[in-house]
Amino acid sequence: MNDRLQQWRAAERLALTLIEGGLQRMAARTLAVFLFTDQDSVTAGEIAERLEASAGSVSGAIKSLLTVGLIERLPAPGSRREHYRLRDDAWATLFTSQNTVIQAMLQAATAGIAATHEGDPAHQRLAQMHAFYQFLLGELPALLHRWHQQTG
Amino acid sequence: MNDRLQQWRAAERLALTLIEGGLQRMAARTLAVFLFTDQDSVTAGEIAERLEASAGSVSGAIKSLLTVGLIERLPAPGSRREHYRLRDDAWATLFTSQNTVIQAMLQAATAGIAATHEGDPAHQRLAQMHAFYQFLLGELPALLHRWHQQTG
DNA sequence: CCGGCTTTTCAGAAATTTCTGAAGGGTCAG
DNA sequence: CTGACCCTTCAGAAATTTCTGAAAAGCCGG
Fold this sequence. Notes:
homodimer, DNA-binding, three-stranded antiparallel β-sheet, elongated, 3 strands, mainly alpha
């Protein structure tokens, strides 16, 4: 029946999922708009209207999405308003942004290893942690490579 | 010099990293204790003392760590207190717990695809999203398999 | 079965995160 | 140069998350 309603529901559900995945609330809702819009690009004002949110919070959300690299600002098409759209490799980017977490884990493990003595149980546990994240860090580039090849 | 101080600092830093990774504050600090303790297992009371936190919050943290499968309750060694320790495959488990997020992403994308028409830009974007997470979901089992092989 | 020691539960407090609304800045048309 | 429009910034408000403290429940030794 009502396609619009269906889409609105799907968009809201997706936003909730994105929040689960670690995005901030308004950033997640904004990203959902970028996904579900029928236009090629949208402006901050359009997002605010669609989400019934203040211009301020939308501005903040856009800023964070830009920083992470999920959306991009389009070369101004002669209009006064800035246009944005979802980047092509947005999902891979979102996934990759966890690499920083992995690196942080590695560093934390390394620091812990340095602070403990060889034989300590803590030392061993930290070594295991280090090994796992080292492994992960090594695997991810190849994983993303396979993805890019597949879409080729 | 002061090993204890070094270890305490490393533990706190690791807790902060874990929080970045998505854990709740107290759960992260508790996990850090499990990593850095020199004992084989610890009790809730010991954790509360070390973190200078209330027994209540420690109880909540332990509960959540148990649920995610990062720690395990040990068969009572004749004592009145429950003993817990870090599970061997804790880190792989922590990583795997993101699979649920991936599955949720897939479902959200599927719902969106169903709610849009074939030619729509939104339809295409959702299809791309779906493809990526489908790919990821397919890769992860093999990744974890390689990890388990490597450790032997 | 009782007493003491632990842990769990939960309502309220504290802290943190997130949103809004208004002021300010930038840009383009005229 | 001016006016209109839109976006950004930021202090304060609102909402959510997280912690605590006290009460209650569980468990073991005696």
